Amino acid sequence: MSIRILFSVALGWAALGQAIAGDKLAIERVPEAKPRNVVFILTDDHRYDAMGFMGHP
């Protein structure tokens, strides 16, 4: 057999194997994570105790 025929047969078998395997070789997708909800509050001209979480009513 010539190299050209041997290469064509090997390539054909590889393509057939890939076609038969199909989804068995597919990588399972991981669901995308939901984006986090972030609230950023920026204030100015406050003392450290001006906020409610620091004990100020």
pLDDT averaged residue by residue: 80
End-to-end Cα distance, whole Å, is 93 Å
Task: Report the β-strand fraction as a percent range.
Answer: under 5%
Q: How much helix is in the residues?
A: 25-40%
> Which sheet architecture does the biggest sheet show?
none
Unreliable stretches covering 5 or more consecutive residues: none
Give a concise summary:
The chain is mostly helical and 57 residues long. The protein has one helix and no strands.
Task: Looking at this protein, list some descriptive labels.
mainly alpha, single chain, rod-shaped, 33% helix, Sulfatase N-terminal domain-containing protein, Alkaline_phosphatase_core_sf, 57 residues, 1 helix
Provide a descriptive summary of the structure in words.
- The protein has one helix at 3-21.
- With 57 residues, the protein is an all-alpha fold.
- The chain is built from 1 helix and no strands.
- The chain starts with a helix and ends in a 36-residue tail after the last helix.
- The chain has one domain.
List the helices and strands and how they pair.
Blueprint: H1 3-21
